[in-house]
Write a structure and sequence with these properties.
two-stranded antiparallel ribbon; about 10% strand; elongated; ten-stranded mixed sheet; Rossmann fold
Length: about 725
């Protein structure tokens, strides 16, 4: 290894490769269990630090992260933090702090005062045990109170958006409280830093006066200048490199000014970002230019540097771990308790109050930034730093599972939209509800054609929904500025217009989703869907149809599911239904019966039987069974049943399709080479070679008591 690292440059390159790859690999793993990315990055830093890599492979760790390289990592991580705090300021829209009412202000300040007070009381217990005698107790108490008061605004916004809570009552109040909380906490931190750096009371007063003057200049001079700069970028030449250079100069100057004042460079970066005008897209465009470099490269360097400074080996006694547990307990009681009780007193329900308290207890990256400032100033010791890092990780990690327990997604959905009970009790049993899931704009035309054929003349009781799920975006402002709703609504406009042309009333739904399969099933439950149609648009040779999200929906949905493979579906005059007798085949026949009734489409039922059975009874009373499947009053078009003996049902179906059909309705099952497996490992020969559009149907059997209710019991004789 030493031969590969022969200069400071190659050493840094090796460090960056190790840091970024570990953070991203941990991110893939941690996202699978529903945790925010910051947890993965913190754990990656700890893995690369002395607590794990340094313990397991001390020689390798010493070669990759020698002490001589730490100053460079420190500088680069500080630069990354300056740009990151600027991004946080860009994402913090002042509109969030206006017009939210007394409740948000009360909850926000309760979530600061209570943990700050408890943290200060805890500091008196910790000071003689963990603090250096050279640290004034006032600085130690103020810092501990501030550290306990932090909420991770960007992590919180992402969790709320992914759980579809950002536009709910709880989400609106929480994000407002978090915004107020962060602004207040950073102002308190700036004051605490000035106290810690000051030599005496007069120095502290002078620092406070200069800091107030700095804020006044930023608001009175720099902010109007930024408005003119924003207008120029929006109306004339766009965000040019010269404008970006001006913003960088302002950013570095602001950070330099606050560092000289004595309230830390990060406050200057945050302050500049907060006063940048949010109108016209200037702040968002600037953030998008910076974010990838900052989040992917520079910020992981900070996490790695934090991990290198975190030594869990210092917690080598039972008393140390008891103090660590006490810190976590006080942090949770202060933040969760203060927020939840205040929320309850302002009129929120206990469920909403508990959810808000859990969310406000999220600390994440913002806490780590504060802790590193405290360690750099010498206010906290390395052992206390390690305890506080454990607290930050623990409070962030527990947010998602506790939120799911107190506020399950199903309960949230029932609060946001009508309940399934309400849907079913206010509509006749003959009404039909169809949920179309649109992932690709090109699938809309075929979806509308199929929906029109299934519903026929839509009655006031029939419901037709179009669901568009938006992939999660890394930027907090993407959620806060309502970009998801605008993007989703815009994408569904052509589909809604096509529905109007076909005399269909389509109700659009759109939101951010980190788990599409689960969210589709949840919406189907809440809307009382009788059928969920998923669109398929990727080339079949590159990925199987019945894997991924399709598999998840087929496995979890408590209603029938159809997967539309659209190959130019423009009309439905001739329909083929391959049949072998499974419940999924019967569900496909049920859809065919609706098509026949509403459109008069000609239906061909291809009953594939074992050749041995054909020798016993080659006729099988075909005419009688057609009447059982499609009673005369239920059909308008011609219905033909063909009984075909064949050893390979899929080949028999392909041979029949060659006679010319508009649509094939086929049940999922191994007999057709269609099995809904997690990774879609079946060959799906029929789907790859069928020249016309198909709908693959999975039937959901509803249990009533000890019996299973089947929709088409008259079809059992066909088996």
């Amino acid at each position: 290894m030493a031969s590969l690292i022969h200069s400071p440059l190659t050493l840094f390159i090796v460090q960056a490769i190790a840091i970024i790859s570990t953070a991203r690999l941990m991110g893939v793993a941690i996202r699978r269990i529903g945790q925010p990315l910051v947890i993965a990055e913190v754990l990656a830093g700890i893995l690369l630090g002395p607590s794990v890599l340094g313990w397991l492979a001390p020689e390798l760790w010493g070669q990759i992260f020698p002490d001589s390289s730490l100053p460079l990592l420190d500088i680069l991580s500080q630069i990354g933090l300056i740009f990151f705090m600027f991004l946080i300021g860009l994402e913090l829209d002042p509109q969030l702090l206006r017009g939210r009412g007394r409740a948000s202000m009360v909850i926000s300040y309760a979530s600061i005062v209570v943990p700050f007070s408890l943290g200060g009381l805890l500091a008196f217990y910790l000071y003689p045990r963990l603090a250096s005698p050279s640290v004034p107790i006032s600085s130690f108490v103020l810092f501990m109170g501030t550290a306990m008061s932090i909420t991770a605004f960007p992590v919180l916004a992402r969790i709320l958006a992914e759980r579809r809570m950002l536009r709910s009552k709880v989400g609106v109040v929480t994000i407002t409280c978090a915004a107020i909380n962060d602004v207040t906490a950073w102002c308190i931190l700036a004051f605490v830093v000035s106290i810690a750096r000051a030599d005496g009371i007069m120095t502290a007063v002078w620092t406070t006066f200069i800091a107030a003057s700095y804020i006044a200049i930023m608001m009175g001079v720099v902010r109007p200048f930024l408005k003119r700069l924003s207008a120029r970028a929006t109306n004339r030449e766009g965000l040019t490199q010269n404008l970006v250079a001006v913003m960088f100069l302002l950013l570095l100057s602001s950070a330099w000014a606050t560092e000289l004042i004595g309230i830390h460079a990060l406050f200057g970066a945050f302050m500049l970002g907060a006063i940048v005008p949010k109108e016209g897209g200037f702040a968002q465009t600037l953030g998008e230019k910076l974010e990838d470099l900052v989040v992917v490269l520079l910020l992981p360097l900070f996490f790695a540097y934090t991990g290198l400074r975190t030594e869990f080996g210092l917690l080598n006694t039972a008393e140390m771990w008891v103090m660590c547990g006490l810190i976590i307990l006080v942090a949770c009681v202060g933040k969760f308790g203060g927020s939840a009780v205040a929320a309850r007193l302002t009129g929120l329900s206990w469920r909403e109050s508990n959810a808000l308290g859990i969310l406000m207890n999220t600390r994440g990256l913002m806490e780590l930034i504060v802790l590193n400032i405290g360690l750099d100033l010498g206010v906290i010791s390395p052992s206390l730093f390690a305890m506080m890092v454990i607290m930050a990780v623990s409070t962030t990690f527990m947010t998602t599972p506790l939120l799911s327990w107190f506020y399950p997604p199903e309960e949230l959905a029932r609060e946001l939209i009508e309940t399934p009970e309400a849907v079913r009790t206010t509509r006749p049993s003959s009404a039909f509800t169809l949920l179309m899931c649109i992932a690709y704009d090109g699938s809309g035309k075929g979806m509308v054609t199929l929906a029109s054929a299934l519903l026929g003349r839509q009655t006031p009781h029939d419901r037709l929904y179009a669901l568009r799920l938006i992939k999660t975006n890394e930027r907090t402002s993407f959620y806060l500025q309502g970009e998801t709703e605008r993007e989703g609504a815009l994408a569904l406009v052509p589909l809604v217009e096509a529905g109007k042309a076909a005399d269909l009333v389509i109700r659009p739904l759109s939101f951010v989703s980190g788990n599409p399969g689960h969210d589709i099933c949840n919406v189907a439950d809440v809307k009382g869907a009788d059928l969920v149609i998923l669109g398929w648009h990727r080339p079949l040779l590159s990925q199987t149809v019945l894997g991924g999200t399709v598999y998840e929906v087929m496995r979890e949905a408590r209603t029938d599911v159809g997967v539309l493979i659209d190959r130019g579906l423009g009309r439905i005059d001739r329909v083929l239904v391959p049949y072998c007798g499974s419940s999924h085949d019967r569900a496909a026949l049920g859809l065919a019966r609706r098509l026949s009734h509403h459109t008069g489409a000609a239906i061909t039922i291809l009953h594939v039987i074992d050749p041995a059975r054909a020798q016993d009874d080659p006729q099988l009373r075909v005419e009688d069974q057609v009447e059982e499947v499609f009673p005369g009053e239920s059909r308008r078009g011609e219905v033909v049943m063909k009984v075909v003996p064949h050893e390979n049902p899929a080949e028999a179906a392909l041979q029949e399709v060659a006679h010319g059909y508009d649509l094939v309705l086929i049940g999922v099952g191994h007999e057709w080479g269609l099995e809904h497996r997690q990774f879609g490992m079946s060959p799906e020969h029929l789907l790859q070679n069928c020249p016309c559009s198909l709908v693959v149907v999975r039937h959901y059997e509803r249990e009533v008591g000890s019996s299973v209710v089947a929709e088409d019991k008259t079809l059992e004789s066909l088996a």
